Amino acid sequence: MRRSIELPRRSAESACDRSARSRKTFFRKNVLRERARVRKPVVSIKDVASLAGVSIGTVSNVLTGKRAVKAELQVRVRGAVAELGYEPDRSASRLRGGRGRVVAVMVPDLTNPFFASLVAALEAAVRGDGYDIIVGTSNGGPAEEAARLATLLAWRPGGLVVVPCDDAFASAAVIRRSGVPFVVADRVADGIDADQVTVDNRAAGAASAEHVLGLGHRDVVVAASTMALRNIRERYAGIEGAFLSRGLPAPRHIEVGLDLETATDRLDAFVRDECRTSAFIALTNFGTLGVLSTLRRRGLRVPDDVSVIGFDDYAWMRAVSPPLSAVRQPVEAMGQAAWARLRARIDGADGPFERVRLECEFVPRASTAAFGKPLGCERAA
Amino acid sequence: MRRSIELPRRSAESACDRSARSRKTFFRKNVLRERARVRKPVVSIKDVASLAGVSIGTVSNVLTGKRAVKAELQVRVRGAVAELGYEPDRSASRLRGGRGRVVAVMVPDLTNPFFASLVAALEAAVRGDGYDIIVGTSNGGPAEEAARLATLLAWRPGGLVVVPCDDAFASAAVIRRSGVPFVVADRVADGIDADQVTVDNRAAGAASAEHVLGLGHRDVVVAASTMALRNIRERYAGIEGAFLSRGLPAPRHIEVGLDLETATDRLDAFVRDECRTSAFIALTNFGTLGVLSTLRRRGLRVPDDVSVIGFDDYAWMRAVSPPLSAVRQPVEAMGQAAWARLRARIDGADGPFERVRLECEFVPRASTAAFGKPLGCERAA
DNA sequence: TTGAAAGCGCTAACAC
DNA sequence: GTGTTAGCGCTTTCAA
To answer: Which residues form the HTH lacI-type domain (chains A, B) (predicted)?
Structure first.
């Protein structure tokens, strides 16, 4: 199918000789009518060039700004762009110009508000630089991660931000082979040579621990999603460190898994036989929810019977009663940092890999209270 | 910069004559070495063709399946694809073949878990068909919506799913002009000619109303985000209808805005002077949070003092105490329906515009209780 | 400073 | 059934 517009071939001179008015008339008569006839749906650089009476190269130069163009032509080109509502085809400019103005983002699960917020932060960060975002989710599996990555990478994005679905991060090979600059966010991949943007997990854990310790709690249980993730281990290590440094035994931890039902079940089995715990520290979103859900089910009141510290800080944590003491991750800042680092790599920076470590903020609220008495088994029963 | 690989020009015959083994040897010696030398980062269809000893046309035919290819060549091509880890450049095939295998998704705010879930559902739906998702957020403004839409559309996606930031939906013009098939999700644009996937908002409202009415509540307050949105008005209309049909006066409503702080402030001002309300029905996420937050601030207990119905159904609503009675939107199904409709349009369906209306499910939990006594002003004070 | 033209990687139309 | 080739809409030499 032939879709391009056939224009009577005009020399450069004739285009320049013609006045702006007659050029427009000419354009209307020919180009617009032709466009309507062939039902060409999108306007291309050629249409702009015709209307402005310049070559497509000049249009490109005006738009990319990579080459000086005389002021008068600039005006004509911009006018034509506005009149036609022209927007350069991004696939085409990507194809010709190398990497495209997209950044690919891979997260384990968009349903998890933390990852969703991260994507939101990233989107806000990149759009300022004229980039778009293309998202994929691994939904837990390394196989799916690799597969999604492959199709995302097939757009030849300018860069990639990835939250690996596990520490092994086998897909790193896929990414590296593609040559696309990337940064690993949130999760730290063991011994992976890559730029990383994480949170100071150790400090975050330590802050929670200090808080409950300061309130007099000694028998604390940690609700971790899974110890297979290094960032979780780091958070736990921070808690452990705080206890150990005071000569106290390290708190126990439960792996609650990655969904609410599992979390609740596992915690419930634990709490059923538990007599001493006076505080829970959650290390993830579902840890928080699992703890809350279990305590409710067991009829235990927060903070009267047990204190609870949540992880992440969402609006609902402020709204419910009691509002939750929690560790707030600087999601916004993570997005910005990841983009800053990625941007630098895209622009050719080739220093050593960096790990940006952002600080969390501990937000004390009403779900934690001074230690009174330990959980009585008779109550929990 | 010249990046393509210079191969000694070989005739088709010579390629066919060579055995598979010698072809590979040949390839290794020439192509791989050359690729390394020029540091060409990505493998193209040409590389595959060389290694398989076929023409690029054949490679394309094997991969797209649009033309029959002899079994033996299929095997060779697939082998080469696997060995090289070839993934067709999506921008290039889009450029040549028309619309690309991406669907653009525009939502007001990715930070809102409802929209995030919708994007997640969409991502899950489209990837089964080999599509990717490119996201943009309007963050409240019609101007930003139009701007983001323009860049998203510049990728010439196969389709678009949009949740307009307001009912005016001025950007509809931008979209329509691009010729990209689109479906409007969640929000209903007044008098817009487009496929729509929404929820049966009226029924959802009615279900909430029936629930509280059945519990004996008569003095109910509705927490709406803003009545400027038609889906919110529809939800309210459902509630109103239930009351009116029983000969009861329509419940009052408060516009709580779109963030937690505003919501809490406005509701707080209302509740301060309120003596009669015995139940709140929230019509959005922030309505729910605002109500909860205000009641806590005022020291009112749920459901002892006031019953509360939330909108949307998130994990935290099940975890907190009391767990929230709520209207669950079928987000998953919305994503699937939107994609199904869009897919049909992409494939050329040109019937009249449809509005798919999905049913919500009312989930009764412990935040609603039988009407006891109305709120005493002395308590609220 | 500008226009002409090559070519990015691919698909589809066309030869054979 | 397979190879060759013309572009898709751009960016970027290369001439003028």
So the answer is: 43-97
Which of B132, B174, B286, B345 should one mutate to test binding to chain A, selecting the residue with the greatest count of A CBs within 10 A?
Answer: B132
CB A213 within 8 A of CB A373: no
The number of domains in chain A is 3
For residue A158, what are the domain limits?
A: 97-199+332-358
Prediction pTM value: 0.90
Q: How far is B244 from chain A (nearest CA, A)?
A: 32
Same domain, B142 and B249: no
- Give yes or no: residues B298 and B375 share one domain: yes
Q: Count other C-beta atoms under 10 Å from residue B8's C-beta.
A: 7
Query: Tens of pLDDT along A108-164?
Result: 999 999 999 999 999 999 999 999 999 999 997 999 999 999 999 999 999 999 999
pLDDT category at A37 given cuts 50, 70, 90 is very low
Q: What percent of chain B has pLDDT over 70?
A: 86
Cross-chain Cβ contact B177/A85 below 8 Å: yes
* Residue partners of A381: CB distance under 8 A and separation at least 6: none
- At residue B40, the pLDDT reads 61
The reply to whether A342 and A259 lie within a common domain is no
Residues 245-274 of B with CB under 8 A from A: 260, 264
Instruction: Classify A149 as helix, strand or coil.
Output: helix
Is there contact between A156 and strand D, defined as CB under 7 Å from any strand atom?
no
Residue A145 shares a structural domain with residue A220: no
Torsions phi, psi of A375, nearest 5? -55, 130
